[in-house]
Amino acid sequence: MKKILILLSLIFVLSSCSEYQKLLKSNDYDLKYEKALAYYEKGDFTRASTLFGELISIFRGTDKSETSHFIYAECLYGMHDYMMAGHYYQMFVQNYPTSERTPEAQFKTAYCSYMMSANPRLDQTETYTAMDQFQLFINLYPKDERVPEATRLMDELRDKLVYKAYLNAKLYFNLGTYMGNNYQSAVISANNILNEYPDTQYREELSYLILDSKYIQAINSVEEKKEDRLRETLDEYYSFINEFPTSQYLKEANKIFEVTSGLLN
């Protein structure tokens, strides 16, 4: 019985493949359209995309053009080919600006870039693209039900950019005095992040990085600059403690305060 079931399954698969091969060679485009829709509904995105990829140009200017284009993008999306899916969603928005599917296509254009957004340590071109596309979606369709999701994803992408900037500031800190005063570069980099993204989840880490960088610069300064830098470190300490009284860096911050105060007395 098991062998019979395997044999029947094999026959079915071969028959299905044979039918699909005949369909590919057919000039009956209406039949191809119906079958492509059926493949798509079954989740067979590979076969559906092959057929719709041909039908887009065949049906251009007809009542089936819009559906062919959109579902082709959906198939690519279903196959996780986000680069090509994003391209065809964007083309759909341009070609069918008044379609009821256009808001979804605009959202998914952005979402495809979101899915291609790289690790924070790598190039963030797609991250910026996704943020711009999500913002465009929100501006165009402020009452769309997907706006909260677009806003949430933008916040996530923004945090990724902040984290990359934080890693850059941390890199400057770790470089120390190698080929220059990298502590000052760390301070400038961290302050830029906090000014641009004041609500970032990395605010505490960045604020402590600034304090620590100023402290190290102060204790290693030449005598004529040391007192001013020590006082600047104390000011930074008070600002840090006021904002983060229960900070995870409280022990380290208090040690900085003790040493700095001692040097000033």
* Portion in beta strands: under 5%
| E-strand count | 0
Q: How large, in whole angstroms, is the Cα Rg?
A: 29 Å
Order of helices and strands: HHHHHHHHHHHH
Label the overall shape: elongated
Q: Uncertain spans, ≥5 residues at pLDDT below 50? A: 7-15
Mean pLDDT value:
91
Number of helices: 12
Oligomer designation: single chain
The share of residues in helices is: over 70%
Output the structural class. Answer: mainly alpha
Give the end-to-end Cα distance, rounded to a whole number of Å: 93 Å
The biggest beta sheet is recorded as: none
Q: Would you give an account of this structure?
A:
The structure is a single chain. The chain is mainly α. 78% of the residues lie in helices and 0% in strands. It is built from 12 helices and no strands. It has helices spanning 2-25, 29-41, 45-58, 65-78, 82-95, 102-116, 125-140, 147-175, 182-196, 203-219, 223-243, 250-264. The longest helix has 29 residues, at 147-175. The protein is elongated, with a radius of gyration of 29 Å. The N and C termini lie far apart (93 Å). The model is unreliable at 7-15 (pLDDT under 50).
